[in-house]
Each structure stands twice: as structure tokens, then as C-alpha cells.
Amino acid sequence: MKVRDFLRRDLTAVEADSSVLHAIKLLENSGLSALPVVDEEGRVVGIVSERDIIRALVPEYMDMLHSASFLPSLDRLTKRLKEIAAHPVARYMTKEVVVARLEDNDLHVADLMLRKGLKQLPVVDEQGRLVGVVRRIDLLSRL
Amino acid sequence: MILTVTPNPALDKLYWLRSLPEDLGLTEEGSSIRAEKSLTSAGGKGINVSVFLAAHGIETVAMGFLGGHTGQIILRDLLSRGVSTNFVWIEEENRVNVVLIVQGKGYHPIHIHEAGPRVDADALQIFWRKYQRMLSRASYVVLGGALPPGLSPDFYRELARAARERGVPVILHAGGEPMLRAVAEGPFLVKPDVREVACFGDMPMHTEEEVLSAGRKALSLGAHACLVSHHLTGDFLFSPDGIWKFEAKVSPAAFRNVIGADDALVGGILVGLSQGKDLVEAVKYGMAAAEAAAEVDEKLCLEREKIAEKMELIEVQYKGKP
Fold it and tell me: CB 3.0–4.6 Å: which of A89, B121, B197, B311 could bond A48 by disulfide?
């Protein structure tokens, strides 16, 4: 099956200068785990995920400790979130985006997601413009 | 791609009733009505047009403002029907529109409309960026339905102007002051909403003569073409090339639900235009789609065979220059 047959035709996205707070609200409303970042032509220039935002909140040493149990309290994250809420998402987005295309087949997309550990992929047209997303559940629900 | 803008989307809730209680609103205890059947679907003029287009395999993107649990249901319904979505999320909940259809009176539904959620300045700013971005991909733009609280009556005018500047033809599928103001931006086609008030500005549109005057007025104000529904089975098209009267040879007694007929009409016109038909032929297909929609319980008839059957029942008469 081709991506065009099962993608979620949702063009929900943010711009590079959208705020982190806006991205959080949009993640909550859209049911997506990551938001494509698009330019003025709608081309995908990055992706900002829940994980990217969480990483921006926790101290850098957390990466080495691999556990949140070392955090003194969530108050520290709340304080940090207030600090970065108005920052543009461009500061925290992943710039090297793995994308799917409408003519890709389901096996290729599943392989990409498994190998890269991704929950969803933006789908782009020939010009690199966003036309939707594929989530893991979009694949699972068709097995 | 055909872009539709529905600033005030709704969750349409349709109930079919055997009858309305004769003492409705008169008893002290209140009244209870049991529905024979109900249907729930995403609604709003632009949204219905998008649903129609997607069913015809035409790429379409629906835009507007969504909020709350109702917004989630609207989004899910559209995605399941193959419509691409690009909405702005707002804090307040989208409206629910209730329609009561009494058995044997499908042509005369009872509406309960909510005003809809307030759209704030931040949401509007986000919308504009999205809209400008989508215009670059659009072959037509449909501006459809009532405006929610918080939006200026110049909203459609500004959207129509932006589309004109990009060379994208606009179909204005709305009513009242926002529609009148947008006509000045030279939309490709104006389809005035006459469901609540049969007027074009201060011009009534009850008789055939009044409809002809209003259509000519729309052209003089800047519209390239204007389509006015005169009654359930008759439309007039006005363009610089002439005036055409369309009449569907069907009986309104067969109508089961006319809620989506106007939107099927606009959707059908766009299908026709996308297939390379001229405007008169496209309107003929639109009328066939509208008549087919009126004869099914759902808001839209999405079966192309049934629409094709109705084509034979549409008569077109040239009425001369405008």
C-alpha cells in the first residue's frame, strides 16, 4: 500500500518563529507527537517533537544519567518552561528531518520508523511541501 | 487543490422525527420528542464543499478555526473522508447545529444554530499565515458560511482581496454584510445565502423580477458571476455573457433533507470547472448534485451515478444579456 492511501491529511504545522508555548498547545490539540516546521511556501524545514521540548526543559546532565529520578522536583521544569515559552521553536527543532513521500510504500515507511525510532513522519510532495503525516498508529491500524 | 475556508465550523446533528408535538412549548411539564433516526457530521458551508470534492477525488484543503471536544470530532470526521485539514486551534468549543426534520417535510427543516466560539487576534494572525501559504497551492478558494464572534465583517473581503492579488478565483458562498463587502473584490462567483433572509443587501429576492435585479446588482458591484437560488428547484446564473435560468424537473415532495443541497451545488460547480466545463455546464452539474443531495438522508449525495441521473432533469434557458 502507498503512503497516499493511508496518510493522515492533516497539515497542522508551526513556523520556525512560532513560540514553544504555541507548539505545546498545538501538540495537545492535534493529537500529534511532533509538529512539522514549515517555511512560507509550506516546505518542511524541521520537526519539533514532545521529546525535543522535554529535552529543552531538563538539565543537560540528564542525558548522561538516563533517569528522571535525579531531578530535584518538577518545579524546576516549570520554571524552565516559563523561561523558554516565548522562544522560537527553531531553537529546539530537529533540522534533519526524515520524510515520507506519497508514492513510498508502507513497508518502506515502517522500516524507516523502526530504524530511526520515530513515532511519525511528515509526508511531502515533489516540492518538499507538507501534505500530511504518517503516525505509527496509521500503519498499525491497517495491519 | 481547492481551498475552502469555514470560519465557523459546526458539528451538525440531524434528527428525524415522526412529528412535532402539537403542544410543543405549551405544557407545564415540558415536551419530550423521540427521534426516529439521527446523523452527526462535520458541517459548515466550506467544509461540506470539501467533503463533496474529496468524494469526487479532487484534492481539497479545509481551513478555519477548531476548538475543544467538538473541534476534535469535526477534525476526525474530515480526515476520515479524505479531506486535507489545516485549521487553527482556539480556546473555545466549536458550535453544534441541531436540525429537526419532520417526516414528510424534508424540504422545511427546523434549525437551532449556536453563534460559535470567539476567535481572538492571536488565532487570526496564525490563520493569515496559513491562508497565505495555502493560496500558493490553490486553484480556487471557497469562502463559506457565517462568521464567528470576534471576526470583522470585512474578513471575507480581506481574504478575497488576498486571493485576487495571487490570481486565485474566489467563490463566495455566504450571506449578509460580510458577503456584500467581499463582492467589491471581484470574486469569480457569488452564491448568496438566502436561507434565513431572501435579500441581497437591502434588495429582496422573492419574485423572479427581484432576483433578476439582485443578480444584476451583484455584477455591477464587482462580481464576475452570481448564482441565486430562486426556489427549491430553480436557480439563476448571471455573468457578463448572459443570464441563464436553471430548473430541475423534480418534485419537492421527494426531498428528504435539503440541508446540504446548496453546498452540493457549489461543490458540483467546482467539480464541473475542474473537469474543464464552462460555467453554465458546471452549474448544471451543481444543480444535479443539489437535487441528488435533497433526495438522500445524508447532507450530501456522494454517488456520482445518482448525480449523473439528475443531469437529465435539469433544464437550462438563456434569458438574454444582463
Answer: A89
